[in-house]
């Protein structure tokens, strides 16, 4: 069976999709580029040719995840802005559930935070998190305290989703239910 010839950009997309899955499963340090290559159906040298290094592939994967979060936020903000500009921040919060439903993406985000002590990864992680913060501030016009609360709630939800105590297949726990009820009661 011969494989159809693909453009480098299409192969790159396949490799990035495989990388999201592999990095979500094993994290940055434990993931091998040959595992990503196997999942993408390409050779390990080809992965390196596309991304130069595992580090650059991880950063590209992390950027993909952050781009997805920003896309979810921008879409929700644009929709809310047409009806009630005061509802932009709450709309962005509700839309974040779309991101939380994709376990691989949220795990890559958490692995990115974990790998931030690496001098070659940390600046990018901090820059992207700051970029999200600034985008939320500029899009909503909300004060720092509201954006801080919004982002803190988002991180709580990310961690809870990673632990599988929220979401469609949530494992019920009393503490998670109490926290979620409290968040809902306070409009977070």
TrEMBL record:
This is TetR/AcrR family transcriptional regulator. Residues 32-51 bind DNA. Transmembrane segments: none annotated. SUPFAM superfamilies: Homeodomain-like (SSF46689). GO terms for molecular function: DNA-binding transcription factor activity; transcription cis-regulatory region binding. The keyword Transcription regulation applies. The lineage of its organism: Bacteria, Bacillati, Actinomycetota, Actinomycetes, Mycobacteriales. The keyword Cell membrane does not apply. It comes from the Bacteria.
């Amino acid at each position: 069976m011969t494989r159809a010839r693909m453009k480098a950009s299409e192969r790159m997309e396949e490799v990035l999709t495989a990388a999201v899955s592999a990095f979500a499963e094993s994290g940055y340090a434990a993931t091998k580029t040959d595992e990503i290559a196997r999942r993408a159906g390409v050779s390990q040298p080809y992965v390196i040719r596309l991304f130069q290094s595992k580090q650059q592939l991880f950063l590209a994967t992390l950027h993909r995840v952050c781009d997805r979060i920003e896309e979810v936020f921008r879409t929700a903000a644009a929709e809310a802005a047409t009806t009630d500009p005061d509802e932009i921040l709450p709309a962005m919060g509700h839309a974040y559930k779309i991101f939380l439903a994709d376990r691989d993406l949220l795990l890559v985000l958490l692995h990115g935070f974990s790998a931030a002590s690496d001098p070659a990864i940390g600046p990018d992680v901090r820059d992207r998190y700051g970029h999200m913060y600034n985008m939320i501030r500029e899009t909503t016009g909300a004060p720092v305290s509201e954006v801080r609360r919004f982002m803190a709630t988002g991180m709580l939800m990310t961690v809870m989703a990673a632990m599988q105590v929220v979401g469609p297949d949530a494992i019920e726990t009393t503490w998670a239910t109490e926290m979620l009820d409290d968040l809902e009661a306070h409009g977070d």
